[in-house]
Amino acid sequence: DLNDKENRRDDMMAKENKRHKNLNKLRVIKQ
Q: 15: closest CA among 23, 4, 5?
């Protein structure tokens, strides 16, 4: 249903955000 779709989208966005944060951390460490 629609709610399930919204939740899944939020999950995907949360995963993306987490991944970006981790990439940023790595970038900061390298500098």
A: 23
pTM beyond 0.90: the answer is no
CA distance 10 to 17: 10
Total domains present in the chain = 1
Q: What confidence tens digit (pLDDT) does each residue in 6-16 have?
A: 999 999 999 99
Identity of residue 8? R
Number of C-beta neighbours around residue 27 at 10 A? 9
Residues spanned by the domain of 15: 1-30
